[in-house]
Each structure stands twice: as C-alpha cells, then as structure tokens.
Amino acid sequence: MKRQVQAYFTVNLALIVIWLLTGMGYFWPIWPVFGWGISLAVQSWKLAHPERDFSTEEIEAEMRRS
Q1: Phi and psi dihedrals of 22, rounded to 5?
Q2: Closest Cα to residue 28, out of 41, 15, 9, 43?
Q3: How far is 49 from 24, CA to CA, in rounded Å?
Q4: pLDDT at residue 49 is higher than 90
Q5: Contact 19/29 with Cβ under 8 angstroms?
Q6: Does residue 66 surpass a pLDDT of 80?
Q7: DSSP string, 1-66
Q8: Mean pLDDT across the stretch 43-66?
Q9: C-alpha angle with apex 31: 10 to 18, nearest 5 degrees?
Q10: Where are the domains of the chain?
C-alpha cells in the first residue's frame, strides 16, 4: 500500500506540473487525482475493515512472507 500511495503522489504531482507548464487552463488533472484517490480510499478501507477476522497463523504467515 505504501508504494501505491507513493506512486499516486508522484504521478499526480507530475501531472499537475505538466498542467502548470502548459498554460493552466481547465484543471484536467482533477480526473486522475479523483479517480485514483477513490481507488486508494477503497483499498485503505478494506485493509482497515476486513470482512473477516484473520487467524494468528494467517497473520504470522503473511508477516514471514513479506
């Protein structure tokens, strides 16, 4: 998730810089910022509120995998 958030900020910052350098007309970067932001918000919600409780064994296995 951390890499996804970093990519979100990096890419959207680049898009905003492009917008700034090309005359600052209609603020078109709002669409990828908004769309991608909703996706990250949903993923964050799912991580914070899982549909089921994970067992200690599942958590430990995932921690070893990382």
Answers
A1: -105, 20
A2: 15
A3: 39
A4: no
A5: yes
A6: no
A7: -HHHHHHHHHHHHHHHHHHHHTT--S-TTHHHHHHHHHHHHHHHHHHHS-SSPPPHHHHHHHHHH-
A8: 86
A9: 50
A10: 2-65
Task: Judge contact between 29 and 12, C-beta under 8 A.
Answer: yes
Give me the sign of the Cα torsion angle 46, 51, 56, 58. negative
Residue whose structure tokens are 């910022």: 33
Query: 34 or 46: which carries more pLDDT confidence?
Result: 34
Q: Could you report the per-residue pLDDT of 8-32, keeping only the tens digit for each? A: 999 999 999 999 999 999 999 999 9
pLDDT of residue 36 exceeding 80: yes
- The residue with tokens 């700034």 is 20
Residue found by looking up tokens 């908004």 in the block: 34
